[in-house]
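Proteins fold reproducibly. Look at a concrete instance:
___
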Amino acid sequence: MEPIVIHTDGGCSGNPGPGGWAFVLAQGALEVIGSGGEANTTNNRMELRAVIEGLLEAERRATDAPVELVTDSQYVKNGITTWIISWKRNGWRTASKAPVKNQELWEELDTVSARVKPRYSWVKGHAGHEGNERCDSLVQVEIGKFRT
């Protein structure tokens, strides 16, 4: 069974400001693209939404294929693979005892991630990585929908 590879990106024009998210899911010859946005949001929220939506799409494939999630966000990669363990143990508080920002999105990502079991990898943004560049273009289109 061919693996599923999902590239994601999210961004904002201003932070907060109008934002967009996107994913490109590929499995062999299959390609699924998803994107969306919000009028007033943050970059981190859009990065999280892109990953959540990409994983939900992988889950809809109803396959046991391995899933690789590729993000340019260290916030997302480190958050879901490392920091979330402490956040949950500490009642969704950071090491400095502050509430974890975007907790509801982290909880949603944690839930879908537990079902899909992706391998997370990071790529540098705006560095010519094809999947990341495609997602970034889609994000810019979504942000543009909110500009007057």
Notes: The domain at 4-73+105-144 is CATH 3.30.420.10 (Nucleotidyltransferase; domain 5). Helices lie at 43-60, 74-89, 103-116, 130-144.
